[in-house]
Design brief:
With 240 residues, the chain is α/β, with parallel strands linked by helices. It has nine helices and eight strands. β1 and β2 form a beta hairpin.
Length: 240
């Protein structure tokens, strides 16, 4: 039986996929995003759980997930670092008709294990950090080539996909970037586009962990976010 290393659990999540959701935040990540709000998931001591323990805990709340059109979301950190656990767990959820979602940065090789997992995954929420490879490396420490290949793989295999884009002044809110993102995403069939305003509420976490918070950016205004969302709506995107 597979065992995962996880950071925390949220049994009534409403921000990580459709409906009310059981959200499991796994430990470990391949990125070091300058705007990460969960740096405590990067490394360090983790909790452990078997797939059977995972299933039994989820089943306690299944009535809420079923009635709201929700289910289970595995996030992080980066959940695709623990694919064998996810395959075994998602197979069990499928047997119980529980909707499954993965919230991922998409920095993953297209392996047989990944292909197997996608058979039991109802929704992939893919974070697009930046379309420009150089800026992507500045923001995350890694290039974006695997991320974009993963997005192509999802589309080629008809995996329902939601794109999540953090809107950060100086990086992803300028007209040139928004126009390029619109043009790029029009090549893909998406479940939704989720536009998330940047915030720096994790500064205290960094301080407690002895880490430096390196991103110097302001929080965008509600009016700025609304204006950008309207651009995407006018282009036919279903935005959140």
């Amino acid at each position: 039986m597979e065992i995962c290393n996880y950071h925390s659990i949220q049994t009534m999540g409403t921000l990580d996929g459709p409906g009310i959701r059981y959200v499991l935040f796994l430990q470990g990540c391949c990125f070091r995003c300058l705007f990460c709000h969960n740096p405590d998931t990067w490394s360090g001591k983790a909790n452990t759980m078997t797939t059977d323990e995972f299933l039994q805990d989820v089943l306690k709340y299944k009535v809420f997930y079923d009635s709201s059109g929700g289910g289970v979301t595995v996030s992080g950190g980066e959940p695709l670092l623990q694919i064998p656990f996810l395959i075994e767990a998602f197979k069990k959820f499928k047997e119980h008709s529980i909707h499954t979602a993965v919230d991922t940065c998409g920095y993953i090789d297209i392996t047989d294990n990944l292909k197997e997992l996608m058979k039991y995954t109802n929704l992939v929420m893919l974070d697009i950090k930046h379309l420009n490879n150089t800026i992507h490396k500045e923001l995350t420490g890694k290039p974006n080539d695997k991320v974009l290949k993963f997005l192509d793989f999802l589309q080629e295999n008809n995996v329902q996909t939601r794109i999540r884009q953090v809107l950060t002044p100086g990086y992803t809110m300028e007209e040139e970037y928004i126009s390029g993102l619109i043009k790029f995403l029009k090549n893909y069939k998406l479940e939704k586009l989720e536009l998330l305003p940047y915030h720096d509420m994790a500064r205290d976490k960094y301080k407690k962990l002895g880490l430096e918070y390196k991103l110097n950016a302001r929080t965008p205004t509600k009016e700025e976010i609304a204006k950008i969302k309207e651009r995407f709506i006018q282009e036919g995107f279903d935005t959140i």
